[in-house]
UniProtKB/TrEMBL annotation:
<keyword id="KW-0573">Peptidoglycan synthesis</keyword>
<protein>
    <recommendedName>
        <fullName>L,D-TPase catalytic domain-containing protein</fullName>
    </recommendedName>
</protein>
<keyword id="KW-0133">Cell shape</keyword>
<comment type="pathway">
    <text>Cell wall biogenesis; peptidoglycan biosynthesis.</text>
</comment>
<dbReference type="Pfam" id="PF03734">
    <property type="entry name" value="YkuD"/>
</dbReference>
<dbReference type="InterPro" id="IPR036365">
    <property type="entry name" value="PGBD-like_sf"/>
</dbReference>
<dbReference type="GO" id="GO:0008360">
    <property type="term" value="P:regulation of cell shape"/>
</dbReference>
<dbReference type="GO" id="GO:0018104">
    <property type="term" value="P:peptidoglycan-protein cross-linking"/>
</dbReference>
<keyword id="KW-0961">Cell wall biogenesis/degradation</keyword>
<dbReference type="InterPro" id="IPR005490">
    <property type="entry name" value="LD_TPept_cat_dom"/>
</dbReference>
<feature type="domain" description="L,D-TPase catalytic">
    <location>
        <begin position="315"/>
        <end position="448"/>
    </location>
</feature>
<dbReference type="GO" id="GO:0005576">
    <property type="term" value="C:extracellular region"/>
</dbReference>
<dbReference type="GO" id="GO:0016740">
    <property type="term" value="F:transferase activity"/>
</dbReference>
<feature type="region of interest" description="Disordered">
    <location>
        <begin position="109"/>
        <end position="158"/>
    </location>
</feature>
<keyword id="KW-0808">Transferase</keyword>
<dbReference type="GO" id="GO:0071972">
    <property type="term" value="F:peptidoglycan L,D-transpeptidase activity"/>
</dbReference>
<comment type="similarity">
    <text>Belongs to the YkuD family.</text>
</comment>
Amino acid sequence: MNRFAITGLSAAAALLAIAVAAPSAEAQFYNARRGEVVFVAPNGDILDYVPSGAAYARDRRGNRVLVDPYGNVIATEMRARGYYPRPPVRDAYNGDVYYGDDPYGDGRYAERGAVTGSIPRNAPIDRQPLDDQPYPQSDDYASIEPDQQPPAVMQPKPSQEPVITLKNKSKSEIVALQVFLDRAGISPGAIDGHMGANVTKAIYAYQQMTGETLDPNNTDAILEQLRLNGGLPLVSYTIAPADAAGPYVAAIPEDYAHKAAMSSLGYTSTTEMLAERFHMDEGFLKEINPGVDFTVPGTIIKVVNPGEAKAGSVARIIADKGRKQVFAYDNAGNLIAAYPASIGSTDTPSPSGTVSVERVAFNPGYTYNPKINFQQGANDKILNIPPGPNGPVGTVWMALSKPTYGIHGTPEPSKIGRTQSHGCIRLTNWDATELAKMVKPGVTVEFTD
């Protein structure tokens, strides 16, 4: 009998333990305007909230922009009908089909170009000094073209599967679904309570792995399986002194020469570190813990309960460029893990055919070489950028037999599967680490369209 046909715990009763907080004042303000405008970040991402501390200003073109306390442009306000088919929606789980360029839905991270720049300032910005606390070093340096979002739009192949529609599911019920998939070794990416492209792809990958049909609307059965395999999707966690102590860096600069001058590219905050540890979107971690000071040891917070990392021996990897997903198989051809990924772009596509893993490095540094990389700012010399989770390749580098290409982590986990790369395979740091521990040199990597 299909185990998802059974009726388990009462969804209403079980989900009381994982109820999320009400929207912030900024979110409520934004929701009131979302039918009229969207906020577009300089890299083309669409913001679905007004960041705390942001203020309005006008750029040189007269556009209304959001700026941070230092005067940096966070996003430009654009008319929704002129920039995007419809404005981004955070909590539409009542049977709506998700939208965007991605055939699997979720237009929150549609791959558009930059639309704004900077605004004039009358005084220089007084930047805080960077923390010089060391981060564990590695003498292995990656040398690739860094992953970033290009202006061109990549058109993935159409989905072969039917669209998945949820029926009146709350954010907490979607979190339960994401955690269930994550524990099975089918990553939904950063867990955030949204039914988007990464979750849809994970559902089909789960069915490929197990041969079972997963009904995402059967929350009772999902909760019952979670009860038998690790417990509730959200649990309490007490912030330890080591969590609060770090070490952390004050900020991560954009300029590579400034990055190279740092001793590490570590986490910038307790929330960033905890979010990655528990496979969460950082904003979602803050949302379900309103008003919490994460820097105080002994503070009890709610976190995702993702379960143990997947273990096994990977013999073959398929990087599906159309699906933006990586599949890992064992020697018998069984699917043992799947991960959402950012793979190439129209400007800098990923390789075709089959290559192999040559070496695996944990906590790698990054070598910027203007002769083989892009021109970053005014930098015209080779720069050795230190390791850290906020480095260009994150916490892991799996070098491929095609020079300058690899599988690696990222400093921006919530964008995985939703933006493009410069040819490499980019995963969340935790997914890349899990895969790297199952991979050895010689494993084949096949790129498919």
